[in-house]
Design goal:
Blueprint (H helix, E strand, L loop, with lengths): L8 H13 L4 H4 L4 H5 L1 E4 L2 E4 L7 H13 L2 H10 L25 E2 L2 E2 H21 L12 E5 L6 H9 L9 E5 L4 H8 L7 E6 L6 H18 L8 E5 L2 H7 L6 E3 L16 H7 L1 H20 L6 H15 L4 E6 L7 H13 L17 E4 L10 H6 L6 E6 L11 H17 L3 H6 L18 E6 L4 H22 L7 H16 L17 H16 L3
Parallel strand pairs: 5-6, 5-7, 7-8, 8-9, 10-11, 10-12, 12-13
Antiparallel strand pairs: 1-2, 2-13, 3-4
Length: about 550
């Protein structure tokens, strides 16, 4: 797909429309009752309110024209059918097949991938039920009651986020812990207080070469061996990988290897065996409800006209903000303490997918693409980041996510005020607080500038009945698909991440250099093109070896 530019009729029309909107304030728009019907979308159980976005009926029409011109519908069809939309790696991107109904047929290379998906889900459920029932025992005959999940990136962020979000569904007698950071402290903390004889370690790495994960896995394997002996370690190891041969060579028994298909990327892999440890914790039934929620949004994406299609409109909105209105970030604020990790999960999903400067064909995109994704749970965020949102010099689009029914509401005093805060922030961001309003409140003249909020800060309100497995699955799929839609509009490949690889390659070179003798002439060592790196590594080695650093 060619890069978008003003030679396109739809792109040029939007650019002209943007110029026409200059000077239009959200304060002037939100009072229009007709906006509610136009800019309220229903996606399964989710209600999306876009009425506090810089959109008019004309904007919506022009954005839909852009989606049509950029053939977003065709791209979605190709993705859902298993065509190789991951062009740089020559692969499909079939994360939707991971939650497809059993009677669906999607063929890749002549094989029905959906049948294989459900076979793997059944294997996962069998293991999960054995652990949850106390039937599965380790090398010493002790029931497994702890699961430690090792992984990084997509192998970690999704399962850890969902585990925290659905903590109320966790099995009370099975502890789930995660370790993702190469810092050895992270692994020590994850293993602290556990007994190797009752612990299962799940190693998640699609390639089974991820250095961060395998170093941690080696440390965990040594810890297991100290407790159950070298011969018994295999009873305590599970591999989730797209490279079963490597996992087997590393010492994982074949029956404890769960495949991750090559046609799914890490940040889209939650519904695969990547979610195995999560399934153990919340149970196969709740995991199935999570997949069902994702499936509902998949079906909405495939079958809903653009103007009423939640993921499509959000993807269009992201392009509108980034490429036309020059917004360089998106704040995500879930009004639920259980969703504290949700912004971090979205950081990888959206920034790794949309942080691209060339199209799928390798041409410069020519317009700004994906911005920074950040956020914090409300109301914590209100006392941390919202000052910037209200009175900072830039305008940051914001997603405010809330639930109508609480998970917990001690004394009945919490949830109404929580939702009230969400709605208050939505209005305050849009409308602001004028100097005249500040003066009318009796604000001293010298403080009026400080008490003035410009408003005109856009937000999307996303509401759902409750934070259930199904609703969480819907939220995840909603953001997955808005990301894919934005990528299609920009003509970029959202399924690769070549920018991640350079640093990893250099780290391997530098890792070997840590143990090598430095060059006498002070020239850079293996892989280094920056002379200061030699100096820094030398400094590190001196303090490390002296032991006083």
């Amino acid at each position: 797909m060619n890069p978008p530019d003003e030679s396109s009729a739809a792109w040029a029309a939007l650019a002209a429309h943007r110029d026409d909107l200059v000077g239009t304030h959200l304060r002037d728009l939100v009072g229009d009752a007709d906006r509610i019907g136009l800019l309220t979308l229903e996606v399964a159980d989710l209600r999306l309110d876009l009425s506090r976005q810089p959109l008019t009926a004309t904007t919506v029409d022009l954005l839909v024209d852009l989606a049509t011109e950029r053939e977003v519908g065709r791209f979605v069809e190709r993705m859902l059918s298993g065509e190789p939309v991951n062009s740089t790696e020559g692969r499909p991107a079939l994360h939707t097949a991971l939650r497809a109904p059993r009677d669906t047929t999607i063929e890749v290379g002549g094989a029905d991938v959906v049948a294989a998906v459900h076979e793997n889900l059944e294997r996962m459920a069998y293991l999960a039920r054995r652990i949850r029932s106390g039937e599965m025992v380790g090398a010493t005959g002790t029931p497994i009651d702890s699961v430690v999940a090792l992984g990084v990136g997509g192998s970690h962020l999704g399962p850890a986020m969902v585990s925290e979000a659905l903590a109320d569904l966790a099995h009370p007698e099975v502890e789930l812990r995660f370790s993702s950071n190469l810092d050895g402290t992270d692994l020590v903390d994850a293993l602290r207080g556990l007994d190797p004889v009752s612990t299962l370690v799940v190693v998640s790495s699609k390639s089974f070469t991820t250095a961060e994960t395998l170093i941690a896995a080696s440390g965990a394997r040594a810890w297991l061996a100290d407790g159950v002996g070298s011969d018994g370690v295999g009873r305590h190891l599970v591999a989730v990988t797209g490279a079963p041969d490597r996992a087997g060579q590393w010492g994982v028994s074949p029956e404890m290897i769960f495949p991750v298909p090559q046609w799914v990327g890490g940040r889209f892999s939650l519904a695969s065996a990547t979610g195995l440890a999560l399934m153990v914790s919340i149970g196969p039934e709740s995991f199935g409800e999570l997949l069902g929620g994702m499936r509902a949004v998949d079906e909405h994406l495939a079958g809903t006209p653009f103007a009423a299609n939640g993921p499509v409109m959000l993807g269009l909105l992201d392009v509108w903000h980034r490429s036309f209105l020059e917004a360089d970030s998106l704040a995500v604020v879930p009004y639920s303490s259980r969703l504290t990790r949700f912004p971090s999960f979205l950081q990888q999903l959206m920034m790794e997918s949309l942080g691209k400067r060339v199209t799928a064909e390798g041409s410069p995109v020519g317009v700004p693409t994906g911005g920074v994704v950040w956020g914090a749970p409300g109301t914590d965020g209100q006392h941390a980041i919202f000052q910037y949102l209200h009175q900072g010099t830039g305008s940051v689009p914001c997603d405010l996510i809330g639930f109508m029914r609480p998970g917990h509401d001690p004394g009945g005093a919490h949830h109404d005020m929580l939702v009230a805060n969400l709605l208050a922030q939505a209005e305050a961001l849009a409308v602001g607080h004028t100097p005249e309003e500040a003066e009318a409140e009796g604000t001293p003249p010298e403080l009026v500038p400080h008490r003035t909020m410009p408003g005109n800060r856009p937000s999307t309100v996303i509401l759902a009945p409750e934070l259930s497995p199904s609703v969480l699955g819907q939220l995840i799929a909603l953001y997955e698909h808005r990301t894919v839609v934005a990528a299609a509009l920009w003509g970029i490949n959202p399924f690769d991440q070549w920018g991640v690889e350079l640093g990893k390659t250099l780290a391997r070179h530098f890792g070997r250099w840590m143990e090598a003798e430095p060059a006498d002439d002070g020239t850079p060592g293996p892989g280094a093109r920056d002379g200061s790196i030699s100096d820094l590594i030398g400094y590190y080695r001196r303090l490390r070896d002296r032991g006083d650093g």
